[in-house]
Amino acid sequence: MENGRISKNLLYSDKHFELLLELYRFSLANHTTIEIALDKITETVVEGLHIERCSFWKIENDRLVCLNLFEKNTNSHTKEADLIAADLPIYFKALKDGIAIVADDVLNNTYTKELKENYLIPLGITDMLDLPIRIDGKLYGVLCCEHRDSDRVWIDSDLAFTRSIADILSILFEQNNKKLVEKELVESERKLSLITNNSKDGFVVFENKVITYISPSYSKMLGYSEEEVYKMKLEDVFNSIHPEDVEKVRTIIYDNLGKREKNFKSEFRFKNKEGNYFWREDTASVLYDENGNYEKYIIISRDVTAIKTAEMEIDKMYTISKNLNERLLDFTYIISHNIRSNTSNISMIIDLIESTSDNDEKEEYFQLLKESNKKLVDTIYYLNETVNIQLSSKENRVKLNLKEEIEKILVAINAIVKSNNVTINYHIPDDFTIKVIPSYLESIMLNLITNAIKYRSKERDLIVEITAKKKENKYTISVKDNGLGIDLVKNKDKIFGMYKTFHGNPDAVGLGLFMTKNHIEALGGNIGVESKVNIGTEFKFRLYE
Amino acid sequence: MSDKKSIFVIDDDAIFVFVLKKLFLKMENNTPLETFSNGYLALEVLKEKFSKNEKLPDIIFLDINMPMLDGWQFLDEIELLPFGDSLNVYVTSSTIDTTEIEKVSLYKTVREFVSKPISLAELNRIIMN
């Protein structure tokens, strides 16, 4: 078939069709570089159009850069020097507008005459067919077909053939660019995995609510295999969070996602595969799409159990020492108050003694002075005792039979019990033993029993019930009476305080229960009280083996 | 203003009350004191006087540490009563706890915190106020 002659029905000549088919095959099977593809394309165009030259120019920063030129004469690939776009405004604008430049008379053609002096005349070019190559709708380069034969006329089939070639070229460039992007992605993921594989921090990436990446360190931290982590659903994740933390975490995540926050942190306990909780600190980085939905959710998770445990230990120590300090301050105030109330009385009495010359009056004040002094001495004695309780709590403990101990105390207070018509019932197994400091147990039991006698009701005879129970390593001993009772609503926090009394009883020094509590606490136990006004009171204390 | 002022002393410390009585005897307008060993007893008397439209005390000396109804509980109770703001209460204590001393200013009816021991001169100043 002769060049330029086309059938009326077919746009492509048979030759063109064959060449295009070959080029398609080549491009589909192509695993080679863009350079080799350009060699093939330029050769195909020169052959298909029967022309002298074919070249491809890429547009770079307002320059036209020749990437490949095939010359039929020399049968070789070379390059032309760059052309400056600013020198060729009309030509360049045409390319930008997507116009195919078809010039049979290049020296006079509107679009090509700008090339006359520096390009066309020196190269002897007479005919040009230039097609813009676009990628993603943007001008990327130009395919130039050039001939040195003034009689040449471009026909429809030439244009159709070249257009098809240009399309193939566009596709090749697009594919090549995609490959480059993919290569970059692979490279950046390789870098990411280098970081994540060597980090102790765990990395997790969610895309569209599905886990797309987890680092080995993350599955290691959780104790699960990678497959198991990939299979985790969102509800599995929330179910593994400690029940006390889960609402807090949920709130942090959904609040921040709602506000389109790019970065946020949360700290919570998480159950590993073995079922043990560890503290983790998560730093989340989130990418959102234009609708505000998250596209990519990257979590960097760190096991902070050691730090957290240390923190909690410090908090605990701080609370203990704060409580101790408060108690110490309270104690200091009480002591100073009790000492001062006596010394202030003494100084006021001395003022009185000085203000009178009457010897009888002086004698009266002197008796008062002696009384005040005794109270002061007692206060200091009790203070001393209190300090001793704290100091001697490490003293050797002795195994005692509780029933025998209580019987000893009852013998000692027999006179008061008889004279006040008191009934004391005790229900304690014969073999009930308890390991204590003997003087403390004696003081505790004596105080609780005499306390009951002191605050008995005048309306009925006093009955005191003493019971003891042992459960595992816990002893519970109860002293219950049917006496006056204490208004616990008003006095709950004062019952065991120093010098707090409740009944306006002149015998009440208010020290007994304070000492009792101190003794029990020194033995590592605790004491509680239940009481109803005019019904009775029950003191219960617990000691541990 | 009548020369003799009526005075309540609410304190469980028998020695202090006795000494205070003696000190008042030595003052020019010696005034008999009505004494109460806890806030509860004093509150009952105040309520009764009020209901019978009798004269309420001009001055009340109030201790803090007391059985039954302590100084703070007494102040809380009288704040709820119609005459709660009109009493002249002097809180007397040997405490050095500053939080307790500062707490006094929360009660409108309290004029002053007076630290024990109290001298004759101080008593005179309070009576003359």
From TrEMBL, chain A:
Protein name: histidine kinase
Matching InterPro entries: GAF, GAF-like_dom_sf, HATPase_C_sf, HATPase_dom, His_kinase_dom, PAC, PAS, PAS-assoc_C
Xref: PANTHER family: PAC DOMAIN-CONTAINING PROTEIN, PHYTOCHROME-LIKE PROTEIN CPH1
Listed CDD domains: PAS
Organism name: Flavobacterium dankookense
Domain annotation PAC: ranges: 264-316
Domain Histidine kinase: 334-545
Pfam families in the record: GAF, HATPase_c, PAS_3
Enzyme class name: transferase
Catalytic activity: ATP + protein L-histidine = ADP + protein N-phospho-L-histidine
GO MF annotations, alphabetized: protein histidine kinase activity
E.C. no: 2.7.13.3
This protein's UniProt keywords: Kinase, Phosphoprotein, Transferase
NCBIfam families xref list: sensory_box
Every PAS domain range: 203-260
From TrEMBL, chain B:
Ranges for domain Response regulatory: 6-129
Residues recorded with modification 4-aspartylphosphate: 63
Phosphoprotein as UniProt keyword: yes
UniProtKB keywords: Phosphoprotein
The keyword Glycoprotein belongs to this UniProt entry's keyword annotation: no
InterPro entries attached to this UniProt entry: CheY-like_superfamily, Sig_transdc_resp-reg_receiver, TCS_response_regulator
SUPFAM superfamilies: CheY-like
GO biological process, any: phosphorelay signal transduction system
Entry protein name: Response regulator receiver domain-containing protein
Organism: Flavobacterium dankookense
